[in-house]
Each structure stands twice: as C-alpha cells, then as structure tokens.
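User: Earlier you gave me the apo prediction for this protein. Now I'd like the version with adenosine-5'-triphosphate bound, so I can compare the two side by side. Same sequence as before, with the ligand SMILES added.
Assistant: Got it. Here's the input I'm using:
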Amino acid sequence: MLHPDNGSPPKSAGLALEKISFAYPNGPQLAFDLKVEAGDIVSVMGPSGSGKSTLLNLVAGFEQPLSGKILVDGKDVTGLPPHQRGVSMIFQENNLFPHLTVEQNVGLGRSPSLKLSPKDRKAVASAIERTGLRGKADRLPSALSGGERQRAALARVLVQQNPILMLDEPLASLGPALKDEMLDLIKELHQSQGMTILMVTHDPQDALRLARTLVFLEKGHIVATGTTQELLREGAPSALTDYLGGRGV
Ligand SMILES: Nc1ncnc2c1ncn2[C@@H]1O[C@H](COP(=O)(O)OP(=O)(O)OP(=O)(O)O)[C@@H](O)[C@H]1O
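And here is the structure of the complex with adenosine-5'-triphosphate:
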C-alpha cells in the first residue's frame, strides 16, 4: 500500500469541460462537454481518431480550445500553461528524458531546474521506493524495462502531487503481467493519493478493472457516459458494441 510521503495527500479535484470546441488546421471539428467528479477514475474509450488524445491534451493545456472552458476544482484553467493546471500526464512511451537518471527524471516533478531541497530529495527517494525502483535510481531510462520506465513516470507523478492524473494508453506497450502490475499500482496510487484519474484505453477489461466511469467517444464527440459496469455489461449503446465487436464482456 502506498502512503502519501509528507504532509497531506493532494486533494482530488473535479474536472469540467464546458462547451469545448477544437479543430486542428484543416482537421475535423471536435466538441466536448464533460463533468468528472473529484476522485473518480474514468476510462476514455473510442475508435482510433475519435479524439481521445486530443481531449486529454486540451485538459493538460497542450492544445488550446477555440471556445469553451476547462475547470479544475471549479477554477477556470483554460488560459493557464500546463504546469499551472494541477494536472499530471503519462503517455504510452517517452515519458522520461533519456539523458537523465531515474532520480533526476523523478526530481523534475518537484523542480524543472532540479534544484531540490532536502524535503524534495526525501520525496523523490520515497516515490522511487514506493514504485518498486529501489536500487535503480542512478540508471538511465535505457537501462530499464518498459514496465520500469512507466513506474518511474508514476514516481514523478507521485512527487508532483497534482490532483488530476491523465494517462494516454499507458499500458499499450506492456505485456500482460506488466500491465496487471501497472494497473495495480495506479489503483494503489488512487487509494493513497485520492487523485482524479482519466485513462485512455482500448481494452474493456482494463476499464472494468480500474474505472468506475466510462466515457465513449466517436468522431470527436462524447457519445456515451456512464458507469463502466452498466455501459460494458448491460446497456451498451450501439456505437460502443460496434466498437467492442467480439471483445464485449
Ligand atoms: N496534429 C494534428 N494535426 C491534424 N490533425 C490531427 C492532429 N492530431 C490528431 N489529428 C486528427 O484529429 C482527430 C482526433 O485525433 P486523436 O489523436 O485525438 O484521436 P485518438 O482517439 O486519440 O486516436 P488513437 O486511438 O488512434 O490514438 C483525428 O481525426 C486525427 O487524425
């Protein structure tokens, strides 16, 4: 079981996308309206190109909407740069700087210039320990397995202590055993830190295992939102059953 390392854990934050519209140059129009309760775990599913990554990038501040608002904990963050939004993000790969050690990569979660106080150093060591990377703090990412690299990325999230965590297919490049391990770690992180989590996945089993809520996208819009159990087991709308094909549960 993971425990917050110092002081109180970050409180989770509710998230809202209000009448967000967005388009890439010469790209399709995307529009999102979504409310996520504080502390919820949400899986974001949908066919390739439906807008899952764009949705996360808009919340993180890597893309700017044409109109609409993004609220974190009720506060309008639409015009804020990514690091001021209270949001951490983990991608499928390339979360770490290749020329920095695990310890330095995790330390970046506390200070972009790696000027770390003794308290920061303690938090970094604790996060490395808690993600099972003890003894690997001095390694470069190239000397880690894929699963270890994702755990190092999670260690950085731990020291950032943001109330919202978003993961864009974090399990896609992992084999089944490592995938289970990461899912367990994300679950533990949620239990101990209480953060609000959004995770893009193509696997309904991941969604069932981790997420209370499911958001389903199609062609740049959210076409279904509900509890994962209900949507995957009972009343799946036809767009979702078509997407799941033979993988229905
Ligand atoms: N940088 C870009 N420039 C132009 N169009 C883009 C860009 N990135 C994505 N798109 C388009 O925007 C739409 C949404 O893409 P997005 O990557 O959000 O989908 P996704 O659901 O995450 O897909 P996947 O499951 O394949 O990762 C798609 O039509 C895609 O082709």
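For your comparison, keep in mind: The helical segments are 52-60, 102-107, 118-130, 146-160, 176-193, 204-210, 228-234, 238-244.
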